[in-house]
Design goal:
The chain is built from 1 helix and 12 strands, in the order βαβββββββββββ. It has 151 residues and is mostly beta strands. The chain has a single domain, classed as Sandwich (Jelly Rolls). The strands form 3 sheets. A 6-stranded antiparallel sheet has the order 1-10-5-12-3-2, covered by helices on one side. The chain has a 3-stranded antiparallel sheet with strand order 4-8-7, with no helix packed on it. A hairpin with a 5-residue loop joins strand 2 and strand 3. It is globular and about 40 Å long. It starts with a strand and ends with a strand.
Length: 151
């Protein structure tokens, strides 16, 4: 897991070409005007989803983890928390679904909480179970982009 501000995105360009490209797009001026929904950059290898929603209580939901994609989550506006824990310490709730590229896990008693606000991104790898969209302090409307980077 990596958490940083978009102004520091250049520090992560050597992880992979696709991650560098995604971070460059996230740092571009026009990204905030992208329409809600899915946008392909390199077909199934690199795409992003624009989302707008209200945060949810922390005691709802389950963590997810992916096998085929790395998530890059970036907040354009609003604030939220993302709960994160290594899946090796989580109890499986639903087996991996090839269709959804996700296995679901019960939220463990102990986990890390990432505070996401405007201009902050996080990179979540396959071992990072995560539960995004959680209320951080007070309920918030969030405008977010989630990049999917094929592994």
């Amino acid at each position: 897991m990596i958490v940083d501000k978009i102004k520091n995105a250049h520090l992560y360009n050597n992880i992979s070409r696709q991650i560098a490209r995604a971070l460059k797009i996230l740092g571009s001026k026009g990204i905030s005007s992208a329409a809600e929904g899915k946008h392909e950059v390199e077909g199934r290898k690199l795409f992003y989803i624009v989302q707008k929603y209200s945060t949810k209580p922390g005691n709802e939901g389950q963590m997810e983890a992916h096998k085929k994609y790395i998530d890059i989550q970036y907040v354009l506006d609003g604030q939220e928390s993302i709960f994160v824990e290594n899946i090796s310490t989580c109890k499986l709730a639903s087996a991996y679904s090839e269709k959804n590229d996700a296995a679901m896990y019960k939220v463990p008693k102990k986990f890390s909480e990432i505070y996401m606000s405007k201009g902050v991104f996080c990179i979540l790898f396959p071992q990072d179970g995560h539960l995004p969209c959680r209320t951080a302090g007070r309920r918030s409307k969030v405008h977010k982009i989630v990049f999917k980077v094929a592994i």
